Amino acid sequence: MQLAAQSDAYSEILSALYSEHDSGSKQPSEYALRECFTKMLTVPDQGPIYIVFDALDECPNSTGTPSARQDALSLVKWLSELPSSRLSVCVSSRPEADIEAILQPLAYHTVSLHLESGQKSDIANYIEWFVNSDPSTQKWREEDKVYVVKKLSERADGM
Q1: How many Cβ atoms are within 10 Å of 93's Cβ, its own excluded?
Q2: How far is CA 147 from CA 1, 30, 117, 157, 158, in A?
Q3: Cα-to-chain-centroid distance, residue 122
Q4: Where is 89: in which H helix or E strand?
Q5: So where are the chain's domains?
Q6: Buried b vs exposed e over 69-79: b needs ≥16 C-beta within 10 Å?
Q7: Residue 6 and residue 14: Cα distance in Å, rounded?
Q8: Are 46 and 10 a contacting pair, CB within 8 Å?
Q9: Half-sphere exposure of 76 (CA within 13 A, CB side)
Q10: What is the pTM of this model?
Q11: Dihedrals φ, ψ of 82, to 5°?
């Protein structure tokens, strides 16, 4: 929807895909969706396209074949291999082995916030604010609030 709103040309490409699939009553294949996106990248005189995958580590990594996370990682890899200077892909995730194994070779630039003290203090500040402002915690003893803030902050693991 965001791409269609940005460009009449993109909107026409997406409308054609919609029409080709009985006005949306049939699900397009992954191949059809990728072809549609590839067409968008070839439209001249268009601005940059930014795609953001936020919290990829929260994508289910079930035992299904392939898992939703594997599908998402495959899509990221495919996007990174497209020959377009107009496409930028940003991925955020906790450092998990399966994700790092795929993304590390693809990364143009990486930023790790996992062990940054600023992130840890932001998390601790948020937890403290929540514990002190939530109506359900108002009856707690002060030492219990301090204990909860301390333990949750220690075990937040960047989240």
Answers
A1: 19
A2: 46, 49, 20, 17, 19
A3: 21
A4: strand 87-91
A5: 2-106, 117-154
A6: bbebbebbeeb
A7: 12
A8: yes
A9: 25
A10: 0.73
A11: -70, 135
Tell me how far CA of residue 106 lies from CA of 11, 61, 71, 78, in angstroms. Answer: 30, 20, 16, 10
Rounded Cα distance, 98 and 17, in Å: 33
pLDDT at residue 156 in the model: 79
Give the whole-angstrom CA distance, residue 1 versus residue 89. Answer: 18
pLDDT tier at 114, thresholds 50, 70, 90 = low
Is 157 in contact with 93 (CB distance < 8 Å)? Answer: no
β-partners of residue 53 are 91
Average pLDDT over residues 2-31: 94
Instruction: Give the tens place of pLDDT for each residue, 70-107.
Output: 999 999 999 999 999 999 999 988 888 999 999 988 88
